[in-house]
Write a structure and sequence with these properties.
0% strand, single chain, mainly alpha
Length: 415
């Protein structure tokens, strides 16, 4: 049986994707990312209207992503020391509760402090969730499992991104801050059903990740495990040369995403009513579907085979924003961007997991999320500095040119 047929046979097996721990992970992720996306475009607007301008708007996203990048390498250690439940619960609280402080005091330094706390919470939730989603995947369906997990991260953006902008315009900023805190509290009960801690190799072989009695695990054929439940540091994965190209591709795509979610509402302020809300809704709706579809494809044809067209779609979607005066072009651009960006997320993550043993899953999760969040932060800050000199259309053109350059590593990695 050739490799493609083997992948297809494994992917169409009867192993369940939606186990109870996986369902609870999805619920916790939906709640956490709902609070994240609800404020993602609102805080830049809040900072800009308070006198911060484009630089202030960029700093809100950049500060949050900086905190995320700094927090992520420590997450595997915290998981080993305190377990999934305590760590993910703390991440959810950090993502939501600090925003309520902005209802009491209004100042730019406090806004940046809230962004710092949210960044730490985001780093915790995404690193822990990504590694756990890969760990819970049945044999032969890891890409699809990661795609399903990606949907739980992306679906909240469908409502969160446009709803945050719409609600802040209609009701003001304070109700959105309170709603974000409430979402985190509602997501907390799901954390109680997650595995208490990372599974050791012996526990995975027995199908008992919580140390309780259990039957054989369908993943027991994998001889590799976390050493004593503790994945190594991110450096081990970072120096793996086979991970360099997918990491660069992801970083460039999220650079463009950081630009879009931070500045598209500002760039469209003088345009047709609600165009920014519709554009964000379209992009956010397409991305999760593309992310799951890319996972389905990856299990059957190989994840890296679709990277080149995915990157091209992101580049073309960004380039279309040069025509901000045309609502039709903006919406079509958001469809392209959402499809490409959703696919890039799953394809790069699955490709990286394919290239390491199970013992490297924690490190890959850290490296992938570092590239994701560093790209978003650099995109927001860099674009904020750029548009003061070029304006929005030329700024989007420069961003698209950066993405076109990434077609080269995507071409080399296509197999």
């Amino acid at each position: 049986m050739n490799a493609r047929a083997g992948r297809t046979a494994a992917a169409t097996g009867t192993s369940r994707l939606l186990t109870r721990p996986m369902l609870l992970l999805l619920v916790a992720s939906v709640g956490g990312m709902g609070g994240f996306y609800l404020l993602l475009s609102v805080l830049p607007l809040y900072a800009a209207t308070a006198g911060g301008g484009g630089v202030g708007a960029g700093l809100t996203t950049g500060t949050m992503m900086l905190a995320t990048v700094l927090a992520e390498p420590a997450v595997p250690w915290f998981l080993t020391r305190f377990g999934h439940r305590a760590v993910v619960g703390a991440g959810l609280l950090l993502l939501g509760l600090p925003s309520a402080a902005l209802c009491l005091w209004s100042s730019f330094p406090l806004t940046l402090g809230v962004c710092l706390a949210r960044g730490v919470g985001l780093g915790i939730v995404v690193v822990a969730g990504t590694a756990l989603a890969a760990e819970l995947a049945p044999p032969g369906r890891r890409s699809e499992s990661l795609g399903l997990y990606g949907v739980s991260l992306g679906v909240p953006s469908v409502l969160g991104l446009p709803a945050g902008v719409w609600l802040s315009d209609r009701l003001g900023f304070e109700p959105v801050f309170l709603l974000t805190a409430a979402l985190m509290l509602l997501a907390l009960p799901a954390v109680a059903g997650l595995p208490a801690r990372q599974a050791t190799r012996a526990e995975r072989l027995s199908g008992d990740p919580d140390g309780r009695s259990g039957g054989p695990d369908s993943r027991s054929g994998d001889p590799d495990g976390f050493r004593g439940g503790a994945p190594g540091g991110p450096l081990g994965a970072a120096v793996n040369r086979s991970l360099v190209r997918p990491t660069l591709i992801l970083g460039a795509a999220t650079f463009a995403s950081g630009v879009l979610v931070t500045f598209l509402p500002l760039a469209l302020l003088g345009g047709p009513s609600h165009l920014a809300v519709v554009a964000l809704l379209v992009q956010a709706s397409v991305a999760p579907v593309a992310r799951w579809g890319a996972g389905w494809w990856g299990d059957r044809q190989g994840s890296s085979s679709l990277l080149l067209p995915a990157v091209l779609a992101v580049a073309l979607g960004t380039a279309g924003l040069v025509r901000l005066e045309s609502p039709v072009v903006v919406i079509v651009s958001m469809i392209l961007f959402g499809a490409g960006f959703g696919a890039v997320q799953n394809l790069t993550l699955a490709t990286m997991f394919e290239r390491v043993p199970r013992s490297g899953f924690g490190r890959v999760s850290v490296v992938w999320n570092l590239a994701f969040d560093a790209g978003m932060g650099l995109g927001a800050v860099g674009f904020g500095l750029l548009i003061d000199r070029t304006g929005y259309p030329w700024g989007f053109a420069v961003t698209a040119a950066l993405l076109l350059a990434v077609l080269v590593p995507a071409w080399h990695d296509r197999r």
